[in-house]
Amino acid sequence: MNDIGEFTLLVALATAIYGCVAYVMAVRGNRIDLYLSADKTPLIVWGCVMISSICLWRAFLVNDFSLQYVWAYSNIELDTFYKIASFWGGQKGSLLFWTLLLTTYTVVVHFQNRKKNLRVVPYAMAVLLVIIIFFLFLINFSTNPFERIPLPPEDGRGLNPLLQNYWMVIHPPTLYLGYVGFTVPFAFAVAALISKNLDDGWIRVTRKWTLISWFFLCMGNLFGASWAYVELGWGGYWAWDPVENAAFMPLLIATAFLHSIMIQEKKDMMKVWNMSLILLTFVMTIFGTFITRSGLIQSVHTFDEATLGYYFLAFLFVILFACMALIIVRLPLLKSENQLDSFLSRESSFLFNNLLLLGIAFATFWGTIFPIISEAVRGIKITVGPPFYNQVNVPIGLALLALVGIGPVIAWRRATLSNLKKNFLKPLAAAFITAIALLPVIPLGSRVENYTYIAFILCAFVMTCILLEFYKGTASRMGLHEESMLGALTTVTWRNKRRYGGYIVHIGVVLIFAGIAGSQAYGTHIEKHLKPGETFKIRGYDITYEKLVAVEATSVKTRVIAQLQVERNGSHYWTARPEKEFYKGQNQPVSEVDVLSTWKEDLYMILADFREDESATIKVYVNPMVSWMWTGGWIIAFGTMISMWPDRLEQRRRLERFRREESLFPSPAQE
Amino acid sequence: MEFVHFLELLFIVIVLLLVGIPLFGKLKFKKLVEAVDPDNDEYKHLLVRKEETLISIKELECDLDTEKISDTDYQELRKKLEAEANEIIERLDRLEQSRKKTKSTR
């Protein structure tokens, strides 16, 4: 089977190269035979990569330690669940997994578009295949997951205990689905540039792809934060780690892109800007991969055998320069005759939001690469930590939060100042009431506390803006039709999925901002070394350390569990069981925290250390409002689903347009 | 020959057949796309623009209903959008007429 897996990767590479050449030749030579020949290649490449992936999965499941990769990331005792996830646990498998997702997306794009716009689609397919070729080249000639060990050992080294968490099955695939997904709009953008079809066709074709990719990237970031929170045992969820930044930057730029394409669709403007944004988003996904695999930056996320950096760097520069050259060559065709109707319009607010998002992305990029630059120039590696990111990004983030509320209230094209005053009156009143109400409750003085105070005020302002939008839409519908409030609300949302789905996403964003603000400013922690029976207090909780229990979980894993009783106002509140897990053959134990999460705050316990006399060092964090962030994430997911849901009216319009076009300009097949 | 090698050979043959068959048919003489017709492109573009302008008019009404713009601004913008829509419709009509004429003379 391993031979087959290795062989199919070679066939996939050869087929992808042929497909890429055939697609380009078909469109340049206007030859349908070549197109139909090339048309088979995405499916063949996908089939080959799928067979190869199945072979690797099989090797994990049957403990085939003759493969170096399986030996390095699995062992006999490893749970089947994690054996499946070990596939993407290391460099080689993760690249194969990336390629599997990319070829799967390519096949879907192929089936969606193979009979449409044949002047653009072949180029888009060729671009997708070029990217597949790059990954297949790496897998075949640099990081082959089917590399053999001459004398296979009886057991493997096992998966890193930190990765033996259910998030390992969820987080990387989600993030990869996002990363890889942006290849599709990028490919269509490049195809539009090459074929000179520079209207908004490529945006319409890839709008859902962009949204899906954005959704997965957003969820991937949140899942990663959640994983870090429960697994790394430091009480936090985001550390501005270079690899976290690498996933955050494309998300920011893609968010800017999602907003600015609306202006192109509406006003046929900002073509160069949108092209640049999608190019930058894709480049950032490659940059993220470069960071993870270059070995230049130390992070919990980077891979051991970081040798691929130069390949990714070269690929990144080739893409960047080729696309920039394409945009420059096509500049005359990308110019728009339309202009903004007014400075006071939703379009302007979107432009500001774009600038702020790019501002945060640039600051994050600078902080991420600064250690590399400083080491290259001065020979000293200067680490850029959270203080830098917080100092720069927090004020920009707050301005962005304000815009989340301001944007929907401003009309498209031109807003009237008097109406704006009227419309902002209630949100401003809500902000004012929040400011007054919070003043005696929360501490002020330090920069963090002041920013948090502003963040809460802005959250109230934005939430009121959004809820008023729902109310106005519902009231307007109720005025025109005899419907109940719930019925009107549902109809309004369902008939304007993009708009109201977007508003729901914004509600999720507000909750995330509130969660971040609350947990960063008002969290507290304590570390105590205790003997059984000893009690300590933290923020109204009385915590008693009861006992230490050691359990042989499996033949390779021993769990040492500390039991603590938590009381609040004199009555029993919770029994906490933080633990340490010891894996055979691993030097460092892994902390498994225990968290009681409520809407108000998280009580977060870590067994930091223990001794033979049963005394233990316990770390307790009280993190306010963390669950607001996770709730915000689910609301974002719900809002995105609504935005993405197929719109029957839009489908009808598209069909009508197509019929009209076909009646006047029939396709060659009909003539 | 080992079974694995036989499978590999079979695999290559299938791939070659799949990509090769279209190259040896009568399709060689058929074109993938017709020569670029600027009218077709413009027509397509105008259809989209027409749709977007009509949506904008609808959104403008929605903005008036939710009191985001004043009546004066609404009237002015509506006039502007209607003029845009009319111009697009006229251009579409012209293209349709000229295309029909060309078809009938063929």
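Chain B has one domain: 30-105.
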